[in-house]
Every structure is written in structure tokens, then in C-alpha cells.
Amino acid sequence: MIKGLILVNAYSAMEEARYQAERLQEEFAKRGVNAEIKRNDFFPVSVAKDLSCGLGGYVFCVFLDKDKYVLQGIEKAGIPLFNGYSAIEACDDKMTTYLTLAGNGIDMPLTLPGIFCYNKDAEISERSLEKIEALGYPLVVKKSFGSCGTGVYLVKNREELKTKNRELLCEPHLYQKFVSSSFGRDVRVIVIGRKVFGAILRESDKDFRSNVALGGRVSEYELPEAAKKICEKVATLLGLDYCGIDLLFGESGTFLVCEVNSNAFFGGFERATKKNVAGAYADYILSALRL
Fold first, then answer.
1. What is the pLDDT of residues 165-180, one digit of tens each?
2. Measuring CA to CA, which of 74, 214, 279, 286 is 20 to 30 A from 162?
């Protein structure tokens, strides 16, 4: 029997993370593949004079984590990865995502990278404040690393901006123009093998963020062809085998790419649409491997 690996974060207690791994394992089993689920804390990669990788016998690895060192080591050892190192690295850092997509005709909210600081007692300059405030209030402040809506803040005035800046001063972060026409709603698009698999509308009456993890409601959404082409282009530019792309509703009826998640949870999507994401992803992987 073909043997594959589903590698998960050792310390995640999220139900959606467990669901994702187990659903993939289930669908692989239906296709005659033994896909083992393992935590990533057994040090599968070590480095001395040479690289050592303790994953002998596995034909492929589905990497459901963001530990870039383990990821890079597995890739260097020659084990086919879904997704690969460069794709996950580009998506894990939101600012890197925007920089990678920039210049390719992808509409995104106007974004400024936070100036990283090594002095926790430093004060943001008046010049910097004015530049950020040119985005208009309210504006969005985001940690560059984070998922499920965490580390995303809406600030309404200069005092809130200064407070949030002090909080994030020594962390990678960014500032972004708030798209008011998309308040409390967005579209999550699942892309598999650089092709749109489906989309859901996420809505919230209580928060400007619509993430399912924060209580957002979901329903199936018919994505226009133009938006499908945008999402497929994004996945191609980032080199992603699988991803979730979050689209905002622009003021002129167009869509703006907000974020790209290389390990997007699909439990809410499967429940809302009754579509088999895990099965489609398993089929794609086996096809890519020609198994």
C-alpha cells in the first residue's frame, strides 16, 4: 500500500485542525493510500555535515503546519510536499504575500509595511503617523503572522493607532486601508491544483471580520468567472497546490484579495456546501504524483 504522511502542528488544540487531517486521511484510505497523521515534534529533520530526514518510506507529505524549518528540510530531502516551502513561506507572512502579488494586476487594499523596531521604548514619529493616517480612519492594523482573524484590528483614531503601534512595535505588522463596503462579510475561495473548487460567503453582524472561527455565518457562493480567474492567478503566482483565498467586496463591485491561507481549514466549507474538499485534494495529490 502507498504510504503518505500528514504532518500537523504538535501543539494545536483546534477542532478544525483535527478535522482537516482526519478528513484527508479518510479520503486517502478510500483511494488505497495509508496516510499517517503525525505531530511535527519528533524532529524529522536534523542538520550536521549533511541533512538527515527520518521520513523514509513516505511517498509524499501533506504539510498542515507553518514550521518553515521542518518544511524546508523535508523539501531538501526530496519528499514531495503539498504545499511546498516557498508557497507556505510566502503565505505565512501577510506582507510577503502582498509583495509577491504586487505588479501582477491583482487588486488589493492599499497597504503599508510596519517599520520593525528593536527598541520597545521607541515612539512612532509624527511623519510616520501622518503617512499611516493618509489611509483614512478607520484603518486596519494586522500582525504579519496570524490566522483565523487573530491579530487583526480596526483602529478609529490617532490615539488608538498610537496604542496599537506601541503594542506591535517590535513585531512584524502592517497598516491597511479599510474596505468599508466589505464590513462584516467576505468570500472564502478554495483553490485546488490552481483551479477554483468553490466559494462560500462569510458574514458577521457583530464584527468587521467574518471568520468562521469568530462566529461568522457561511453559505455557498457563486463566484463570477472574473473572480475565479483572479484566484487561480493568485494560486499560480504563489505556487500553491491548495489554498483558501479571502476576497473583499470592493466599492465598485469588484473583488480585492485580502489574504491567502496555504492551510485553510475546510470544515466550515464542507458543511456549508456539502462538497468534498478533502477528496478533491487527495485526488489532486495522487494525480500530481501519477499514482
1. 999 999 999 999 999 9
2. 214
Residue labelled with grid coordinates 514619529: 125
Closest by Cα among 44, 223, 207 to 140: 207
Which residues, in sequence order, are CB contacts of 133 under 8 Å at separation 6+?
139, 158, 161
Tell me the pLDDT tens digit for each residue of 110-155.
999 998 888 888 888 999 999 999 999 999 999 999 887 789 999 9
CA 146 – CA 192 distance, rounded (Å): 22
Query: How would you label 75-101 residue by residue, b for 16+ Cβ within 10 Å and e otherwise?
Result: bebebbbbbbbbbbbbbbbbbbbbebb
Strand order in the sheet with 81-82: 33-39, 2-8, 60-64, 81-82
Q: For the sheet containing 242-249, what is the strand order?
A: 217-220, 195-203, 185-192, 242-249, 255-261
Q: Is the dihedral of CA 15, 20, 21, 27 positive or negative?
A: positive
For residue 144, the SS3 value is coil
CA distances from 186 to 6, 12, 92, 95, 209 (A): 29, 26, 20, 20, 8
Q: Any idea which residue has 499514482 for its cell? A: 291
Residue 25 to residues 5, 54, 161: CA-CA distances in angstroms?
9, 21, 45
Peptide bond into 9 cis (omega under 30): no
Centre a 10 Å sphere on the Cβ of residue 236 and count the other Cβ atoms it contains.
12
Handedness of CA 176, 180, 185, 191 (dihedral sign): negative
111 contacts 177 by C-beta, under 8 angstroms: yes
C-alpha cell at 50: 549533511
